Structures are given as C-alpha cells and as structure tokens.
Amino acid sequence: MDLRRALIALLPELRGFARFLARQASEADDLVQEAVVRGLAALPQFQPGTNLRAWMFTILRNAFYEQQRRRKTEDRALAQSFDESEVGAPAQDGHLDLSDLHRQLFTLPPLLREALVLVGAQGLSYEAAAVICDVPVGTIKARVSRARTQLSASMQRSPPAEK
Questions:
Q1: What is the pLDDT of residue 160?
Q2: Is pTM beyond 0.70 here?
C-alpha cells in the first residue's frame, strides 16, 4: 500500500483524535485538513518502516497546539484593542446533549485527556503515544493512570444527566 492510500485510511482515526482535542466537529475537520496538508507536504521526509499513524498523529497534535497558541495571542491582541465594557458575553446558541462520560472526559486537564484518548480510544501503545506527545513512556503511563483515576472519581461524584 502506498503512503497516500495509507494516509487516507487514517482519516477516520485522525478525525476522532481531532474531535477530542478540538471538541467541535468543524474545528476538528479543519484540524484534520491542516494535518493532512502538512503530512502530504512532508511525505518525502517520512521514513519508511516507521509508524505512519504516530507520525500523522504527531503532526495533528502539533497543529492543534500551534492553533491554540495563535488563538491566545489573537485574544490578547483583541483584548488590548477593545474596551472591556464594549465587549459583551458571547451568546450561547445551544446546548449539546452529551453523555456523562463525554462531559466528564472534557473536565480532565488537556494533557491527561490527550494521553487517555491516544491509549484508550485510539488503541495506541504507550510507546507510540509517548512518541506523539514527545515525552518518556513513563510519563504517558502516569498520565493515563491519573486520567483514569480522575475520570472514575468524577463519574462516581456526578449524578446522571437528565434527558
């Protein structure tokens, strides 16, 4: 299978990971598109025999954090250019009916959520997740363990959502 076909086969997994990072479908789709464009542009740099999945997840993750940094910079610039009294609270257009687990997952700190999604939902090995996150394997194991512990505790504390 050539690399382009393998990359196309990864799209559903990339989109799933992007949804956990971005939380909104439209932002996740944009993130996947950005990662694929970057991946295709860097395809000659990919080393055959290495893990294409981990390589693309790393590109996606880096694109997400780059967007987050850019957004913070833009927010600071906007905050400086407008008087706070001129800016009102954003209108809430709707409420998503999320499952308890889904809601609780997003209460986890981003690094713990990321590790849990990579290992739990995406089925990556600790080693592959460590490569994607650019941290030691032990750090990933600790993050997953803390995420599971916090998620379990918060699920026991929170009452089930009413429908």
A1: 55
A2: no
**Are 76 and 30 within 8 A, CB to CB?**
no
Domains of the chain: 1-81 (1.10.1740.10), 98-163 (1.10.10.10)
Residues 6+ apart with CB under 8 A from 163: 97
Specify whether the CB–CB gap between 105 and 151 falls below 8 A.
yes
Q: Which of 23, 152, 161 is nearest to 100 (CA)?
A: 161
Give the pair of three-digit tokens for residue 41. 């542009």
- pLDDT tens digits for range 46-94: 888 899 999 999 999 999 999 888 887 776 766 665 544 444 444 443 3
Which structure tokens are listed for 18?
Answer: 């992007």
Measured CA to CA, the distance from residue 63 to residue 121 in angstroms comes to 20
How far is C-alpha 101 from the geometric centre of its chain's CA atoms? 16
Say how many residues make up the chain. Answer: 163
